[in-house]
Amino acid sequence: SLFDEPLAIAVQGLGPRQRVTLRTSLRDETGELFQASAHYQAGDDGELDLARCPALPGGSFSGLEPMGLLWALQPQKPFWRLIKRDVQSPFLLQLEVLEGHGERPGRLLAQVQHERAFLRDGVRRVPVREGRIRATLFLPP
């Protein structure tokens, strides 16, 4: 998905009303780790859709926040910021579903890796250097 587009996150195959922790992580271009987590409870059908299910207290955020696992990413190194310098390569986002809640969630139930790209396919990147102006022009296909 593109970095500025919403990402729909859902989990299927859980037990009815099963309590799980969802955790996201990514490494920036320098290798620094950013993480966020949230506690959820699946519905009666064993499904969890972050657009409809609020996060329970105790994680990086709580309430109905479909993109919370992305905006709540925090660095492990104090005062570090998530900055993308090379927009031609995507961020690789790891998403894990862990059993239970608490300081040390239980076993890993599922995991997936997702690319968050900054440029749509076919976009041309043109450096601009004119006098004292330094910029980059992005042209659609």
UniProtKB/TrEMBL annotation:
GO molecular function: fatty acyl-CoA hydrolase activity
InterPro entries: Thio_Ohase/aa_AcTrfase (IPR006862), Thio_Ohase/BAAT_N (IPR042490)
Gene3D superfamilies named among the record's database cross-references: Acyl-CoA thioester hydrolase/BAAT N-terminal domain
A Pfam cross-reference name: Bile_Hydr_Trans
All residue ranges annotated as the Acyl-CoA thioester hydrolase/bile acid-CoA amino acid N-acetyltransferase domain in the record: 4-130
GO biological process: acyl-CoA metabolic process; fatty acid metabolic process
Top-level taxon in the UniProt lineage: Eukaryota
Family note: Belongs to the C/M/P thioester hydrolase family.
PANTHER family referenced in this protein's UniProt entry, alphabetically: ACYL-COENZYME A THIOESTERASE 6 (PTHR10824:SF17), ACYL-COENZYME A THIOESTERASE-RELATED (PTHR10824)
Protein name as annotated: ACOT5 thioesterase
